[in-house]
Amino acid sequence: MALAAMLCFSCKKNDGERYVLILSMDGFRYDLPQLYNTPTLDSVASVGVYSEMKPSYPSMTLPNHYTMATGLYPDHHGIVMNNFYDSALDTVFAVGRYETRSNAELYHGEPIWNTVQRQGLSCNVFDWIGIEAPIGGSYPDYYIIYDPARTRRQMADMVLEVLCREDVSKIPNLVMWYIDQPDAIEHSYSAESEQTREVVEDIDSVLRYFLAEVRRSPVYDKIDFIFTADHGHTDLSPDRYLNLYPSLGELVERSDNQTPLGIVPREGCTQAIMDTLAVYAPGRYRYWLRDSLPEEYHYGTFTTRIPDIIIQPDLGWKIFYHPNPNYKMPLPGASAHGYDPEEQDMHMVFYAFGPHFKKGYKHDRVFCNVNDYLILCRLLNVEPAPNDGNIDDIKGLFFDNRQK
Known about the structure:
Distance between the termini: 29 Å
Radius of gyration: 21 Å
């Protein structure tokens, strides 16, 4: 982990006069503002900063949101996929099961809400992976969990309530806000579809409302705003679908049927599986034993949670192992994520403005979202916990310390 990143911040005590709001818009691909009408985000770019950003591996929602919160790669913080089995704890983590998401044993690292609260600041979280568990014995000062019945406008009003309190002492220093779109619509329709356009433009209109109303806050001039995402999306097709069950048959003990696809072989069957995978691989997927994954993925050392064999589909392919020959066959025009973070379709937006960001600046590099944690620590002037970030990748976003 990049422990040296801890040395790049001022050591003075936080003055309590700094405020940050970060919004994650699930699946908001880097080019959606160019495809659709997003005047609010366009305006943010003109008065603040913009950067294309890439996810950590694997490019899935829960691993990347906890990466954003901790500054650690999924292999280091333990949320290695949306769903996984931990053989040491003999327990399952599942995105749709509260009882597993609330198990603090499954989370490693220090989330940003613990970092800021440990150093005397306050944090409110409006839905984020990890808030349901007492990680390190602590919860955020205030949090609400995901409710699909809650509208984006209702969420905006809840966030506005805490930022616009008359009593400044009751305004949290850090507010984290999550919405599940446009990812939810993109799983049924292309990122370049009328349905996705409607959702993206509605999100932009909610942000317009939010930014107009938040000016009522008594600390408005002190708030740094960040609008970002966890991953992008790419189009699928029934023509790019491969079910490995007919080929691997009973060689497999267990498969997680996610992207990337994880396989646990039956005893003595590993080489037979690898030999079979070699037949179908070209142009469809790459595959590795867990301890042979590419170094740039920063993945494979959490041996009790990551399956023995990892199959990474090529962009747009869906690879499964299931007795149903059409298991999760992609809908024509649907899209998905889980692909190599270097694929541009997996990249997402990063917009920010406020007293500590440059104005009208487009960043000169695509940076990884492990740096979100460092950005929040930098803005709030708190000392970061050990993390995997690289301060050199993000320091160009900010005013020089001598200026602000």
